């Protein structure tokens, strides 16, 4: 039901959708659903890349930590690699003054 509501959000709420998907990913991870968690996290990451949302990235980091114990699951490993690459790339950018 929650996922259906997320899909129904107007595009103006894209940043919020990324945050909510990240939180959904963390919820799936702590409840033992690593594949669903990785799928939600991947969707959130796409939004974070498009919107450059620091809030979504923060929530994705929390989801990544919750997924650590599931790293042997291929979908989780793929997400974790993407998250590491994204955070490494973001931290190497010069900051705005």
How would a crystallographer describe the biggest sheet?
none
| Helix content estimate | over 70%
Helical/strand content category: mainly alpha
Shape type:
flat
Mean pLDDT: 89
Structural overview:
This protein is flat. It has 97 residues and is mainly alpha-helical. It is built from five helices and no strands. The chain is 77% helix and 0% strand.
Q: What attributes characterize this protein structure?
A:
97 residues, mainly alpha, 0% strand
Task: Give a short synopsis of this structure.
By secondary structure, this protein is mainly alpha-helical. It contains 5 helices and no strands.
Write the layout of secondary structure elements.
Elements lengths: L1 H7 L5 H17 L3 H18 L2 H14 L6 H19 L5
